[in-house]
Amino acid sequence: MLQFISWGGFIGTSLLLTFLYYLIIGIRYFRKELSALILRLRKKFLLMLPATVGLTAAYAQTADGNNGISQANTLIRSYFSTGTQLMYAVGALVGLIGAVRVFNIWNSGHREDVGKAAAGWFGSCIFLVIVATVIQSFFGL
Question: Is this prediction's pTM over 0.70?
């Protein structure tokens, strides 16, 4: 049954139900404030009506969305190895910059700040490498 429901229909129905829920709450408890808000924004409401009709017509134009989604999936998967290598390179660069910064802090005589600086710089380097590896193994790429 669920395979017959499209994402656009699901999101549109969810948004419509959410709007109706808050409209009922607003009418029930905030009648004066809501009427003042509607009077203040009535021109914008009238301009939104043709936009929503045009959006509905735009949804009707996308007949074969599966082809576009599979093509996007293929492109993203082909870029992922390059992105992983880029994250490794950024991690190495952050590690080198961190090493120079920690060395400068050590030589300037601020020995009590060396531990915090080293933990911050090298922790970010390790984080970048671990994130790239975990994402790669998690999604099986």
Answer: no
